[in-house]
Each structure stands twice: as structure tokens, then as C-alpha cells.
Amino acid sequence: MSKERDFNAYIVQLVEHMRESAENLPDPNVISEFDEESLPEELKMFADVERFLQGKPKRIAVITGIDTQAFPPVSKLNDAHTTILYDEMTRLLNEYGFYADFPAGLPAENKYVLLRTKWNDKLVYTGNGMTCIEFCDYEPVRCPYPEKFCQCKDLDDFDNFDDFDGDDSIF
User: Is residue 156 a part of any domain in this protein?
Assistant: First the structure.
């Protein structure tokens, strides 16, 4: 029983750490190693865009200050832990302007596993705007989602996109 209590305490501490990170966002210029002051005056209003284009990508773990190893493997979690950690990870990412793109109805366990894997990916923290985190590269044989949630198999029709016979004058 003591191990379970200790593990629950660890989950609570991890959630507190994520919430603390979300409340204390770092300076985006520091994290992305971007010198906003060197921008010409006419580009300063687009600093977040310039930061996105020229900033140095960092691992999500570095940006948030929470190492990937802090997140337990899903095999050690019960359903409640999985849901809580996924929800908190999502909230944290949203505070940093990162949004995870999952198919509707995908179970929290799948989302947690995929987010935990992405925690080592590099992104540019802009301090403003929205960066979408994709999990699928739209190749059905490599789709990370269970078959009933796979949307890339529906994209096979795009192979015939050259056959489009609509009015292309709008392009």
C-alpha cells in the first residue's frame, strides 16, 4: 500500500510541476535563442513570426522544464493517472502555444503514449500564436493510431487529385 501511496504522491507532484511551468512561461527570445532587438523597427510587430522562422528549435522537455523521463510509462499508470496526466500535459502545451492534433474519440491512453513520445521533439517556442503537434505523417502503413481512428487511409483518394475537373480559375 505504501508504494501506491508514494506513486500517487509522485503523480500529484508531477501535476504541480506542470502547473507551475504553465504559470511561469519563459522568455521566448531566451528559449528560442532569438535576438528580437536586432529586428528592424518595421518587423518588430511580427517578432513572433520571425522568432518562429529564425528561432532555434528546442525539445519540448527543455521548453517546459519537465523531462520526458518524469512521465511514467503507461504500463505503470491506472486509467485515472493516465487521464489526469494527459489532461495536464495538454493544458501545459496549450499554455506554450502548442496544440496536439488527435482524431476525435481517441482514448486518453493512446494520447498519453503519443504525447510522451513527442516530448523529445523539437519545436520553436514563439511566446505567441499556435503550433500544431502532428502525430501522423499520413502514410497508412505508419499510422500511429488504432485502425478505427486512422484518417490517413481516407487520403488515398488524393492520389487522383490531378483528375480534379473543377473550376481552377479560383487558384
Answer: no
pLDDT, one tens digit per residue, over 40-80 is 888 888 888 889 999 999 999 999 999 999 999 999 999 99
Q: Please name the residues in contact with 136: beta carbons below 8 A apart, sequence gap of 6 or more.
A: 143, 144, 145, 150, 151, 152
What pTM was estimated for this model as a whole?
0.81
Show the domain range for 99. Answer: 2-135
**Among 84, 90, 92, residue whose Cα is nearest residue 65:** 92
Q: Per the domain annotation, does 69 fall within a domain? A: yes
Kindly state whether residue 162 falls inside one of the protein's structural domains.
Answer: no
Written as one letter, the residue type at 36 is E
Q: What are the cell numbers at 39?
A: 529586428
Q: Write out pLDDT tens, residues 97-156.
A: 999 988 888 999 999 999 999 999 999 999 988 898 888 777 767 777 777 777 776 665
For residue 123, give the nearest of 74, 60, 68 by alpha carbon.
60
Tell me if 153 is assigned to some domain: no
> How many domains does the structure of the chain reveal?
1
